[in-house]
Amino acid sequence: MRNTVQLITQWTNIATVTEEVIAPILTAYVAWILQHARRHQIERLYFVSRDGQILQLIASVLRRDGDPECRYLYGSRQAWFLPSVRNLDEESLKWAWMKGLSRSGRDILRRLEIDEEPVLSILAHEGFDEASLARQLDENELERIKALIRKEPIASLLLRKAETRRMLLLEYLRQEDCLDGANWALVDIGWKLNCQHSLSRVMKYTEAIPDVTGYYFGVSSDHAPLEQAGAVYPFISHSRSRLRSTLKADWIFKRSTVAVIENFFVISDYASVCGYRRISSRVEPIFKDAVEKREGGSLARIVHATVLAYVNELASTRSVDPESEDFQRRSIMMMKRFCLYPKPIDVMGIALLPINDDQTHGEEHWNQLAVRIDMRLFLRVVGDYLTGRSEDSDQLRFSWVGGSAAISSWPVRIVIISGSALSRTFDSLRIWLDRSLKWTRTK
Fold first, then answer.
1. Domain limits at 187?
2. What is the predicted pLDDT for the residue at 295?
3. Angstrom distance (rounded) from CA 174 to CA 208
4. Distance CA 296, CA 354 (A)
5. I need a surface site. Which of 243, 270, 290, 321 has the fewest CB within 10 A?
């Protein structure tokens, strides 16, 4: 009986957080997209799976006559990165081993979809046995792996894989009317424009040669070059970014906040897309049978139902204008409070959410959203905040620092929050110094 009461309490509180925090900020984002697309004569919006699932549901309620058509497009990093490869230079392949990702040999091969014979035999002959591929590579080992991938026979195998994936992707895009010459745009959550960049590379080889445009909840300061990615319209951008946006909020782009947004705010009720296949006369997405599909369905249904109820009530009563600056500011303020300083009761129902940052969703990369921090973890988290390692480390086995602090003891909570505030102060000081130096040089 006690467990049942706890479960009901958790679900009730999740619905409350969704109504007070998630629904307003996502509604503000989608309302802004529709308004902007209307002004710029965008004919069609493609909401990219899976983050786009709840966004398209919101758009279906807010959309009015004259607004763009709202469609759904199945895609992901794993489904779009490899098809973009036409040669094996660093620019074409850097997504497979970029900084911040796991750099184990096995993960690199998985991303390139060549973790198979005869590649494994060739690498074993060159000194990369199974144990070597399972651990993180140092810089010298990484360069050796890169060189072997670019040599025959691995090079030809990789290029054939990319060509096969590209033909299927182009067939899918043609099927979904992406190549009909219409003025359309992607809608996604963010962050570095790598997916849009990859899609742009694929589509430059089509007869339509469309310029890819994208709307994003957030675009970080270290995004892909715009001349490669295409036109970009962010709702929120980093203060160090030159992109124009409705809102500026550096804290959104911290790994901790990104984890909450991706795994709670825009939670989906199905697993990631890992590719495409031809079924009869159609091309259909292939879904990865992952942990989040098995364990996130109930939570996704609660979040989606609560958001839709909120948007429907807002649309019917017109009590507030979701396009107004006041609504946008209040929404992001509530979001910041929740992401950085949540209450323990807000965290308990979602702490065990399984999350996976790697594009292949390998089993060894599963973490949970938040954990109770003991003294050992406490010392590591403080050290990571003070040294800046928290953005790259994947060893703590949780991602939401604010949520973990909220369900930990008071001493731990106070120091974690203080360390986070200190880190943001140092970031602000660095930005101020950078701007001051630029002003001095140009004076």
1. 15-81+164-339
2. 52
3. 10
4. 8
5. 321
Helices (H), 287-374: 291-295, 297-317, 325-340, 344-348
- Could you tell me if 300 and 403 lie in one domain? no
Amino acid letter, residue 83 = P
Indicate the average pLDDT of the chain: 85
Q: How many angstroms separate the CA atoms of 12 and 7, rounded?
A: 8
Return the pLDDT at 441: 39
How large is the C-alpha radius of gyration of the chain?
Answer: 22
Do 246 and 297 belong to one domain?
yes
Query: CA-CA distance, 72 to 339, in Å (whole number)?
Result: 28
| Contact present, 46 and 72 (Cβ < 8 Å) | yes
> Are residues 316 and 173 located together in one domain of the fold?
yes
Q: Which residues pair with 69 in a beta bridge?
A: 44
* Residue 379 pLDDT: 74
pLDDT band at 241 (very low <50, low <70, confident <90, very high): confident
- The answer, yes or no, to whether residue 293 has pLDDT greater than 50, is no
Residues 134 and 171 in one domain: no
Q: Are residues 59 and 172 in the same domain?
A: yes
Query: Domain for residue 418, yes or no?
Result: yes
**What's the pLDDT tens digit per position in 52-100?**
999 999 999 999 988 999 999 999 999 999 999 999 999 899 999 988 7
Torsion of CA 85, 86, 92, 97, to 10 degrees: 50
Are 268 and 377 contained in the same domain?
no
pLDDT at 24: 97
String of b and e for 280-290 (b: at least 16 CB within 10 Å)? eeebebebbeb
Count of structural domains within the chain: 3
What are the Cα distances from residue 93, in Å, to 149, 154, 198, 225?
Answer: 10, 14, 11, 16
- Per the CB < 8 A criterion, the answer to whether 366 and 288 are in contact is no
Angle at CA 433, nearest 5°, toward 236 and 393? 60
Residues 199 and 72 in one domain: yes
Residue environment code for 231-244, b if the CB has 16+ CB neighbours within 10 A, otherwise e = ebbbbbbbebbebe
Q: Could you tell me if residue 1 is inside a domain?
A: no
Give the DSSP H/E element, type plus range, for residue 440.
helix 410-442
What is the rounded CA–CA span in Å between residue 391 and residue 38? Answer: 37
Give the Cα separation of 437 and 378 in Å (integer). Answer: 36
Task: Say if residues 46 and 178 touch (Cβ distance below 8 Å).
Answer: yes
